[in-house]
Amino acid sequence: MSVWVDLQGQGPVVEQLRRAAQSGAPTHAWLITGPPGSGRSNAALAFAAALVCEREQLVERGCGICRACHTTLAGTNADVTFIATEKTTIAIDEARELVRKAHDSPSSSRWRVIVVGDADRMSERTTNVLLKAIEEPPPRTIWILCAPSPADVLVTIRSRCRTLTLRLPPVTDVAALLVRRDGVDPALALHAARAAQSHIGIARRLASDAGARQRREEIVRLPLTLRDVTTAVLAAGSLLELAQAEAVSSNEERDISDKADLLRSLGAPETGTLPPPMRAQVRALEEDQKRRSKRSVTDQLDRALTDLLCFYRDVLVLQLAAQGAPAVAHSPDQAATVELVNESLREALGEFATRTRPEATLARMDAINDVRRRLTTTNVSPLLALEAMAVSLL
Asked: What pTM was estimated for this model as a whole?
């Protein structure tokens, strides 16, 4: 099975990466961009696997069968380093370690590959640490950076990379992937893919977790509860609680698994008190999990606001349809360029759309996007920011 199989709807980019892996001298630095859910990290890992693939035939590299492909996708290949942060930013010490690794010769592969999954989460000072290594890398080292857009990376780095841009795959492609890879019921897969707005990871979670689907439904319905300042403040509190609950739910299984894996690797006894060195490593893991939890709450809150944003997006679609805008779906069965994300709420959305104008809807969408920006770039209190936003949605 090819390493490219899960990159739905990314044919042109996959073809460029495939040709590069098959060449004898691929570009030394790559920047893969695309919106959240487009599969940036998946594309980077697939490319890395193809670069170190053990197949001798160039056209077969990225086979997905050999040991090098398996270990790369599993994150255990000694010649492929992947870094993504569970914190707000990538630390400068982590960047220096990447530079050190970049100068090591590959142990068993053609290339040493350094993948930075969150290149947009580096400060200017941290990014400058990488500049020289990316500008003049060792002859057998390849850098792959991932970011939402080229503008999220310093121009000095961007100018030294070959940039490829991914797009969000069609809803039907995401649904087909869930059916084929995860055995999801086709109807549920289509519903999850549409609700996730083609974000593959979120679609998979919605398809597999009824609780996640329920929390999203509550978030999308929040605008229908807004009547006055009191209901707006209550809605803001509910939005924060739902995001926190989703963060806890999404991390819980992973935290348990990580701790079990650590204890197993340490050879910890099944019962009794752990020796002091083991306790210290468990405490370090728990501290990392706390930091990850904080980042997860921020990410889930941003996702909750994205779901809230799609409510007003659907309202705007219906308002424009009422004004005779072209290519707008007037019924679930009508083929059109623009469809509702929240098809199950069509009746409530239609009623809401008649009570306001498109200009007001756009202003509300701007208010939500402003809070998303403030929550990720400032130290504003999430609850206060959400309360102010909810009042502006009245």
From this structure: 0.75
